Amino acid sequence: MEDKFIKDGKKVTDKTEEQKSVELVVSILKTKKDLDMANHNFEFAEKELIDYYAYQIKANKSKLDYLMKKAKEQGIALDMTNEIYLRKNEVV
79 vs 20, 25, 48, 53, 84, CA distance in Å? Predict the structure, then answer.
């Protein structure tokens, strides 16, 4: 028996492997950007926000490690050249 999922009156279909890979790469780039922003904000944080940005840094590092592990398992290789190229073309 085939499982069918309905959302807003439409059948939900599984994503292709290519779509999943693209989403993973986009998530990695977004998390890296969030980590960079948290590091930048930490440098200029006032006393009350130091713990907040330290938490954000740790959370984003953990998430990035997890996403990179998943990418490696799927055989996806990332390099800074592609990240810069994607940023210039505003994909992220």
Answer: 19, 11, 36, 26, 9
